User: Which sequence fits this backbone?
């Protein structure tokens, strides 16, 4: 897939324009809805509500989250793609937005042509975790066991195409080992079954209290730098995979065809929201970091994410549904 060529339609949407009134009048003059691709109550929902509150403060109009979970974000994506490009329907997106074309043979929209990328919102480092009772003490030991044990090690994920799935598949590919995915309906049950010892490992948001109590053991983190709250846990790059990086993230999109002045206005509001204490407070419980970007930078980020995981698709580590 030539990702750069396919992204050209999205790049064409990003021409600069004057801030202020749109061709349709002052924006917004009514309720704005924010489509969220996961159920209420999780990290994604918390980010959407925090950003929505900041938008509401900036614009003086309600911003209402609308949860449309299912199919790794494609249900929400279809709703966003089919909405008018007037700014009154925005959507929170995660890794599925970038890689769903790899995961599903038939998705009801074109990821490049049917959306306007607005900006990155946040990133979340993940950790390679094993149960506290596991004999695995470090990444070297994990790789050795995976290569020598008669039966493959298993790993839990929040479902096909989830950040847990992709991060672990990338790790296995780069380490040259075979790991068998056990998908769950969400990250919470995946984590709890790992704690119980029903699967061998999970790569997910680091549950600090579980790590501190000894219920889970963190072998490495997936970010480029160590985490301040887990300073003794190495990065996977330090543990022997120098090119490895994989983080969970959230961004904001709208339907294709948003006028340049409207895109500029919403982009600037997004940058202010990302810099707010409201969003920092929403991210802190699970170790998230604000990650601001321009629309152009978000397009480049999406391209890079596709290239990162296209490698494991080509290797057969992940197969389309």
Assistant:
């Amino acid at each position: 897939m030539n990702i750069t060529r396919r992204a050209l339609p999205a790049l064409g949407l990003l021409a600069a324009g004057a801030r202020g009134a749109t061709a349709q009048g002052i924006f917004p003059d009514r309720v704005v809805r924010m489509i969220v691709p996961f159920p209420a109550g999780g990290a994604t929902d918390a980010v959407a509500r925090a950003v929505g509150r900041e938008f509401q403060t900036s614009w003086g109009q309600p911003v209402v989250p609308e949860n449309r979970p299912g199919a790794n974000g494609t249900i929400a994506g279809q709703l966003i793609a089919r909405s008018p490009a007037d700014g009154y329907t925005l959507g929170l997106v995660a890794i599925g937005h970038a890689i769903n074309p790899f995961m599903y043979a038939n998705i009801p929209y074109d990821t490049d042509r049917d959306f306007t990328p607005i900006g990155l919102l946040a990133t979340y480092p993940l950790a390679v975790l094993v149960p506290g009772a596991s004999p695995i003490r470090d990444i070297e030991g994990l790789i050795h066991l995976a290569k020598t044990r008669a039966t493959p090690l298993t790993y839990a994920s929040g479902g096909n195409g989830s950040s847990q799935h992709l991060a672990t598949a990338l790790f296995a590919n780069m380490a040259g080992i075979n790991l068998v995915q056990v998908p769950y309906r969400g990250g919470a049950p995946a984590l709890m079954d790992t704690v119980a010892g029903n699967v061998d490992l999970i790569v997910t948001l680091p549950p600090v209290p579980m790590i501190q109590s000894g219920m889970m053991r963190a072998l490495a983190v997936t970010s480029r730098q160590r985490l301040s709250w887990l300073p003794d846990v190495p990065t996977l790059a330090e543990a022997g995979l120098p090119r490895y990086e994989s983080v969970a993230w959230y961004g904001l999109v709208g339907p294709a065809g948003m006028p340049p002045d409207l895109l500029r206005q919403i982009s600037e509001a997004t940058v202010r929201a990302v810099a707010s204490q409201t969003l920092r407070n929403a991210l802190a419980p699970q170790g998230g970091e604000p990650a601001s970007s321009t629309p152009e930078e978000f397009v480049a980020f999406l391209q890079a994410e596709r290239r990162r995981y296209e490698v494991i698709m080509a290797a057969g580590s992940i197969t389309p549904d």
Q: What stands out?
A: Residues 150 and 178 are 11 Å apart (CA to CA).
